[in-house]
Amino acid sequence: MITLKVLYFMSKNNAKTGWYLYIIRCANSHLYTGITTDIARRFAEHQASGPKAAKYLKGKGPLTLVYQESLADRSEASKREITVKKYTRQQKLLLIEQHALIHPTER
């Protein structure tokens, strides 16, 4: 069932639309999920462990961006973030793995 959801979200949100869901893997293999309008900027903030970085990620580097998904607007991004944060670790890993198969050049 997750496979169908992943394919639905990936095909529905192919265009660059302005809001993104992303997943970062920490050095200790923990997964962090967030949303942003600029993935490169947000990831750099997390890596720098500066004042705008998520407290959860501070001191847990090196960080790796392992998943990103384009969404229509902030509302859709927030709803998707809540959904993904409720996933088990196995479901998140499956989401990441399927994304890598569909988009092999983004790694």
Structure description:
With 107 residues, the chain is an alpha+beta fold. The protein has one domain: GIY-YIG endonuclease (3-Layer(aba) Sandwich), CATH 3.40.1440. 44% of the residues lie in helices and 20% in strands. The chain has four helices and three strands. The chain has a three-stranded antiparallel sheet with strand order 2-1-3, sandwiched between helices. Strand 1 and strand 2 form a beta hairpin. Helix 1 crosses helix 4. It is globular. 20% of the residues are buried. The N terminus is likely disordered. It comes from Shewanella frigidimarina (strain NCIMB 400). This is Excinuclease ABC, C subunit domain protein. It holds the Pfam family GIY-YIG. InterPro entries: GIY-YIG_endonuc, GIY-YIG_endonuc_sf, UPF0213_domain. Belongs to the UPF0213 family.
Task: Write a brief caption for the model.
With 107 residues, this protein is of the alpha+beta class. It is built from four helices and three strands, in the order αββαβαα. A hairpin with a 5-residue loop joins strand 1 and strand 2.
